[in-house]
Specification:
The complex is a heterodimer of chains A (300) and B (295). Chain A is built from 13 helices and no strands. Chain A is mostly helical. The two termini of chain A are 50 Å apart. The chains are: A mainly alpha (300), B mainly alpha (295). Chains A and B meet through α1, α3, α4, α5 and α6 of A and α1, α4, α5, α6 and α10 of B.
Chain lengths: 300, 295
């Protein structure tokens, strides 16, 4: 063995030890905060455990059977998907429109950027409280304006048919700025000469230019925005917790609120873990799509 | 005489400059009309929050639509919000929790990211795969078992319980690893030859170079945890420990809830820190928050 090999080997061993040492805290936390909780969650779902009760029994698939036949849970799933179905097209289309228009502005671009991004930076709970006040049937400014215009009072949050769309409107309000920034990033990566070339070719009209150049080249960004928006909308909780608490008549019960109530309010831990696993399944499906989309984006 | 004046006829198929100008102006008009209408929708709650926070109760409760208060009542509303609910306490709790989380996240994620990017060690690939998998698990999933564990340990209603699920940021590890990978190996080798330990290399050479990523990550982390309701709502019932969103919820639920002047004053105080920071560090802020989009 040469003399130089020894220190090299020792160095390599030392590097391995340091590397492992550097990664160890993160690895242990990963086990404690993700891996073990997931296993415990899966195990809990087959028991009748309730927080505070000392003993528990294995009950097989009882919780699953109960969850899928539970009217309330089914309604919360349907409501969540309904919410996503409003927020997704609403926020994606509006933010795309805003981004395309803002992108062409020169002097006023940052002015609009600041305004549209404001909801993203603000505390949603505080703003939800303000929205609740704005939408108040008798005191709110929105109903005051509606009365003045000759429409009657609209009970936005107490009408079961209107409550969820109203929350979705606030969801759109919060997401437009975020999606706009993602679209703006996508727009600035489209080469300018393409537009110049199209002008020479006679594609003069703004709408034509959008359809022939912007839209196809923005495809990957759009797919990406659609997936992240779906995940965000699927996790709706704050506005429900502050503004409606699942009401009126369960019209705004959503999946995270159902999990919160079962797990941390009624302490039906085992049952809540089944609901959590259903929630996780949806998020994983969205994330798989996202990975797929991200791959396409990098290969574009 | 004949040739002196150039004729100003418009060639066929082209628009005259004046007509083009008019078309451009109407186009601009509609663009700005649309964008401004959207801006009004976005700004409505902010403006109304500020205006209401300086209105006296009788003007708030009058059914008449009035924008500017007749009587300035800001002092009363804000002092009520600060006295009746510990709004400053909520803000302080928010600062404590956000700082604690961010410091631990950086201390744990940076060495791990460096090891993943630059060092060979057993289990490296497994760890990275775990990190990628954990990226798509939201806090609401491990919340239940972590809550049960904290309850068993008697740690509910502590700052620690509010921070612990977020001590590990897999997103931070992922982001810093990407950043460290492009750090030149030659510099690291040179530092090793100079007798620097890996520990020193991480904190004194590699970390300072990653400043933009760290700044963006800090914004992302602080905004996420200043605004988080779900987890504090679960582990905190002592109102003195409540971070801003939970405090706001408590304040809105309490009997003070119908005092909209004070309520909007509290909302203003709790929203202001992030919004003001945003206005001053706009680029960094947008960068930091939209990184969740990359996640």
């Amino acid at each position: 063995m040469s003399t130089a090999a020894m220190p090299f080997r020792r160095q390599l061993l030392w590097q391995k030890l340091t590397g492992a040492g550097f990664a160890l805290p993160a690895f242990l936390l990963l086990l404690a905060l993700h891996v073990v909780p997931l296993l415990v969650l899966a195990a809990l779902s087959f028991t009748d455990y309730e927080l505070g009760v000392v003993t528990f029994e294995w009950v097989g698939l009882d919780n699953y059977v109960q969850a899928f036949s539970d009217e309330t849970f089914r309604r919360s799933l349907v409501n969540t998907l309904y919410y996503v179905a409003i927020v997704l097209p609403g926020s994606v289309i509006l933010s795309l429109l805003v981004a395309v228009l803002v992108h062409q502005r020169k002097r006023t671009r940052s002015f609009y950027e600041i305004i549209y991004f404001l909801p993203v930076t603000s505390t949603l709970i505080a703003m939800a409280t303000v929205w609740q006040f704005l939408l108040h049937p008798s005191l709110g400014v929105i109903n005051a304006a509606l009365r003045k215009l000759g429409f009657g009072e609209v009970p936005f949050l107490s009408d079961p048919d209107l409550a969820l769309p109203t929350l979705a409107m606030i969801g759109i309000w919060q997401l437009i700025g975020f999606n706009m920034i993602l679209f703006l990033a996508g727009l600035s990566s489209i080469p300018r000469d393409l537009y110049e070339a199209s002008a020479i070719d006679g594609v003069g009209n703004g709408v034509d230019r959008f359809l022939t150049i912007t839209w196809p080249l923005l495809g990957p960004t759009t797919l990406f925005v659609i997936v992240t928006t779906s995940i965000t909308a699927f996790k709706v909780f704050d506005t429900v917790a502050v503004m409606t608490k699942g009401g009126p008549q369960g019209a705004t019960e959503v999946i995270l609120y159902a999990i919160y109530l079962e797990g941390f309010y009624y302490f039906r831990t085992a049952y809540a873990s089944v609901l959590t696993l259903v929630f996780l399944t949806f998020v994983v499906i969205f994330s798989v799509i996202q990975t797929f989309v991200l791959d396409r984006r990098t290969h574009y | 005489m004949q040739a002196a004046l150039p004729t100003r006829t418009v060639p066929e198929g082209q628009v005259s400059p004046a007509a083009a100008m008019i078309r451009r102006m109407t186009g601009l008009f509609f663009v700005h009309a649309f964008l401004l209408a959207g801006a009004v929708f976005i700004l409505l709650p902010f403006v109304w929050m500020l205006v209401t926070s300086i209105k006296p109760p009788d003007e708030v409760f009058s059914a008449e639509l009035s924008f500017w208060p007749d009587r300035f009542y800001g002092l009363e509303n804000y002092s009520f919000a600060l006295a009746a609910a510990p709004v400053l306490r909520f803000a302080l709790n928010g600062v404590i929790v956000c700082t604690g989380i961010l410091v631990v996240q950086l201390l744990i994620a940076i060495p791990c990211a460096y090891a993943l990017a630059k060092l060979q060690f057993p289990g490296r690939h497994l760890l990275f795969i775990l990190v990628l998998l954990a990226l798509c698990i939201p806090i609401q999933v491990p919340a239940l078992p972590i809550y049960v564990a904290l309850a068993w340990l008697g740690l509910l209603n502590t700052y620690f319980s509010m921070m612990v699920p977020f001590f590990l940021s897999v997103f931070g590890i992922f982001l810093f690893r990407q950043f460290f990978r492009s750090f030149p190996d030659d510099i690291i080798h040179a530092a090793r030859l100079d007798g620097m330990s890996e520990f020193e290399i991480v904190w004194r050479i590699v970390t300072p170079s990653a400043w933009p990523a760290i700044a963006a990550f800090s914004v992302f982390s602080i905004v996420a945890h200043w605004n988080d309701l779900y987890w504090p709502l679960i582990v905190i019932s002592d109102i003195n420990l409540a971070p801003p969103p939970l405090g706001m919820m408590y304040f809105a639920d309490a009997e003070t809830g119908s005092n909209y002047g004070a309520l909007t004053a509290a909302a203003t105080v709790l929203t202001a820190p992030l919004v003001v920071t945003f206005l001053f560090a706009r680029r960094r802020f947008i960068e930091g928050i939209t990184m969740t989009g990359v996640k």
